[in-house]
């Protein structure tokens, strides 16, 4: 349509160029009809299922009551956002959220990749498979169950962690781990690794299968040792997956979850355990305030997009990988 | 195949590695083992805590409680169906779109990619989603388990990065032979991406198997569409009220010490075992796709 | 009923939200739990089959005379006997019909009501069956989707989401239906009409707590009390203890004498929404019942937040002192509910404050072990010798929970007729006591009781479900807990002294005799009349400043209370002042004003109601 219009436009020269560009485009489009058939229906699908419901974002600017139509609601402008940003605890909550997120991101990547590499170096296939299977089991334990096990292990009445540390003479009396705010991020980070390291390893193991075995042989002929091969073959082979996952995870950095924080949180560590999701749970969802929850969702999306586009941009400049 | 003599450094590394991984195995096996123990222990006895590696008062009661209603078997069937159908559809569709956005010449590549990627960080909220499903007449239908998830964007991107890692020229040469995109995808790309597909199938399968919130939201009216996880959630909810409902007057009348006493804690442990066992049994069949590759690529034993 | 509920999916844990929600409604929880419990257990002897069929015949013959008579009497203490009970309109339609009922009050397996014995009996009388559904995930979510889509079940008990349902105009007004088809409904509920009317003058739902006849308190303590292990009392020959100082002195004395046993003097539960164990004692110690966050003055009826008052300081200072003597369980502030129950079950805890229904699992566990020394005794502890304790709940009418008929209902008339039929006295006996000869007996004086075998049989949840107690003894139009039947028997089986006595252990009987009482509640003072009670049931608008105050003040308390209790004694005052600063920054005054106003409104309605009678 636009090209037609420009053909009849006042600047014939540019119009002709544009028109031939457009023609070329449509020509290529036509040639790629099978690629289009393979993707466009799904674009329509995602539009319907993911973009259409975004009309719900309107309620972030309303005092929403579900019984009334979306357009009959009372409009309140930015007041939900103001409630969020002006709360005394907002800065603390954001600090906690980012701290937990960064710890989770770094620790999660490092441990999963390390475990994948270590598994890859094992000589006995049976042992490798067994360890790998076992390490993925905790993923199936819900946080309620896991948090209970963690609290029990950290307890001052005979919890295993205090027992071991006392036995090693690292401490001389039991420490109330969950009662000291400063420890919370660390406890959470370790718990998350413990629960999901095996699960997170899977994708790297799969990526390793794509590494051409001849590269290892070549490295070995060059006289590369164990660490050399890991550094020169395995890790570079994983790089594309690592970068892509990193970008995607950066985008969802504010999604730190609420279950472990909620279940292991208490008055004594609240200054460190409360994150954005718990804040929204307390003041949004549990008070039936869908508007606040939506406002927080929009805030998170904005942060996500900023991080996502920056990370993608940096990745493109530094190497070949990019998300889009 | 290379045969090398192991250097002393190798021996130290291998020993340390094995020890480290054994330690890891112990730490990660414990929660599961402990959960199994709690599920096999008398619920009332479990209240006292202090259960670690062996049941103190062995009992099958928790399992009897879980399996006492016949509905759970039908629900298991639905769970299997949604897991199998949902996983096959999602993996296939995600892989197909992943293939298209891996083709550098595809004119809509960037547009399609961004359209999908952004949705990972967008959420319209519960109510709009509910109304959408209702308006599409999918409430009370099996397809509500499959259709809203036919593309997993995260999975799609993972597959794409695998496809892009395929040796250069394989796809080109297929196309030289006159194969169309769909044919290339089916004949070349799919078989070569098996490790990625197995990974994504595992992610999707586990997600499908564990889902209950969509059942709660859309299909709770129809017991024929209930899934195992949802039935387990119900049992858990019931165990809560069993112990709390009776509580007040239980104390009054000491009448609470009922024979079929269950607690949320023990039911939760039992449902963890019941729900995850199938996943654990299926796992080795998927695992071989990436472990096989590992032996190829890593150290040869 | 959801706090405990939670999150169980192997991966998904959405229910957590629910827990949180529950915190906000923790007051509610007490009541619902208590009521449910009361009713549930009770299971008992019930209207005989003969009585049922009699009722049936009555219904069929439809004596409109008796109908007008009962309706005319219209007072809660109307002593209509079963045969006099009003019956609904003569030409009641009995063609089989099935309605849907979503009940958010409890979480039990879904069922068709006619699959239970009670439900079958009611279906025989009316032809009505209910497909009963209960929530699994978050109730607010479920109700939210109902409202957004406009699809409701025929009958709905929305529990705490009732404000949203009313807001959405999802219930139909009931007054005309009641006038036309509900003589029994009128008999039971009319005295409470003032409290039931919404701002627009209509009645949209029927609450669960209209007390009929004299009020009978619960013989055992399912509400707040200071619990103490029986071996402590035994060792010192069952002393009478009244004040907090005496209570802790006794624990200290016992602990000193048994240093090697590694006992815990006192523990508290502070986890998640279950914070009442540390927040609420000041109110009780000062001689007030559980009004939630406030103490309500008996004269002025002004609500006063007590968390920043001297009573709270006094309570925490005592705990600080106790902690300093090594008697307080420091892990109180990090333990979760399971760990707390485990701790009490271990039998090594000498004392704790809690609500009976919350500590019950652990106490039952100890009872099962059979060692009576380790069992607990609930005591009405107060600060001062001259304070009158007020732990027991006064009779109360909770006006913001109930069951209503929705705009989607196919046939409201049949439903209201079913409700009316249910409120006939013989049917009320059936839903609480069950069937005569099976779940209860009647002695020659006309008193209802249960045999030990019946009590034993009814410990089985499956049995309770198949009979239908689980489904019928709450969440329907009903006599409120503590009501008395026209023949003088207790409406709740659990409150019938004969039943209570029969279910006491030998140890229970012994310790009761040592204190010269028949039941545990006799040790507690009679509740004074508090027409507003309970203040925690006052509905606070969602997201309003008052609700935000509740959340924030909870956070502040949770943060400072551990510090205060665990501090070195010389630092206590400084931390207390720091706490006061933080607390008083919140809108305490606004919250108090909101509650004071609601209390005044409720009192006006109640007194208006009785004068109208």
Automatic annotation (TrEMBL), chain A:
Q: Which InterPro entries match?
A: MetI-like, MetI-like_sf
Give the chief site where it resides. Answer: membrane
UniProt keywords (A-Z) are: Membrane, Transmembrane, Transmembrane helix, Transport
State the SUPFAM superfamilies in the record.
Answer: MetI-like
Q: What is this protein called?
A: Sugar ABC transporter permease
Pfam families cross-referenced by the UniProt entry: BPD_transp_1
Where found?
Answer: Cell membrane; Membrane
> Which family is it part of?
Belongs to the binding-protein-dependent transport system permease family.
Q: Which GO terms describe its cellular component?
A: plasma membrane
Keyword NAD listed: no
